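Sample 1 of the test manifest.
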Amino acid sequence: MKINEHYTEIGNNYLFAEVAKKVREYKAKNPDKTVISLGIGDITQPVAPAVIEAIHRATDEMADARTLRGYAPDYGYDFLVQAILKHEFIDRGILVEEDEIIISDGAKSDTGNIGDIIGQENTVAITDPAYPVYVDTNLMTGRKIELLPCMPSNGFVPPFPKRSADVIYLCYPNNPTGTVLTRDQMKPWVDYAIRNNSLILFDAAYEAFISQPDVPHSIFEIEGARQVAIEFRSFSKTAGFTGLRCGYTVVPKEIKAKTSKGETISLNALWKRRQSTKFNGTAYIVQRGAEAVYSPDGQRQTRSAIEYYMVNAKIIKTALESLGLTCYGGVNAPYIWCQTPDRMTSWEFFDLLLNKIQVVGTPGSGFGSAGEGFFRFTAFGNRESTVEATERIKTLF
Ligand code: PLP
């Protein structure tokens, strides 16, 4: 047999594995030191009680033959689709239809797997820096990638591709930079996609962290987007589901593509065909938990966890700025993107923080070459360690 050799092009070291290795080695050599992590974007606050109660109830249903559930419907239970439709779209005045919402086990799988329905010969444009899944999954299939650098000089607004791109990945609020596009900044991208017959893959995993009114919660707020965009959503950061696993993808029926024989195909039908063949549904108990996010208690409790994280973001950003460091993000996203001091590389700053004050963050260069010279702090820590980390950082300067 032959392997898919494109896998050899993506390298072995996933960014967070490299960070974890360095931390492990440091701890082994310095067992007396306490390391604080403001690194990985994982939750630290307990899952909302309303969600936990719903999961308990659903688990009990599994113990009774009369209420037992087996395989879930391929595209998700209707109770969850209806709850998402109402709260995320209808209540915000955004046009999405129920058969356009396809439930999954999260946005990582969906942003990675969407490549299955996209021709290998497409050119792909990806913002730089970016969540590594977009670049790596396209390298795995051998697609040509153009990176769109997002830096202070362009206000972190991606420039249009130099050569027209068939597929464009946008992620807002952005991981890792924490920056956003306003409605006025997003509209030209929708227009670009319409003009160039391109598809926008819009990752809205951090939508719940938006605090400013001119930032769209969904790309479908932008006129014309239903013709050209697929949107990925996740309960991971919104409601603490990183360990429970639930997300959904919205594929409007208007998005069409032509086959080489001139036949018109709906991407909604194609994605459903892919999912029903390769995915067997998100667990019933997890979908009941996700439904409970939309109960009044669930809404209040998940909101309060997001507010908690955003207070952390403010603490980190204020501390870094008081030291004269330049920071972006942290207002509509749980990430602070900090320019390294004294022109240090991202990994030099990582080593300095780990060795001198035992604080861990994520080197910006790990998200792409335009991330060199930047460092990502996350607001997902608990309050005590966030405050302690900022106190330690203050001793550095
Ligand atoms: N998209 C972005 C931009 C992310 O940062 C992450 C996780 O960190 C994901 C998707 C993955 O989300 P999920 O947990 O739903 O797979």
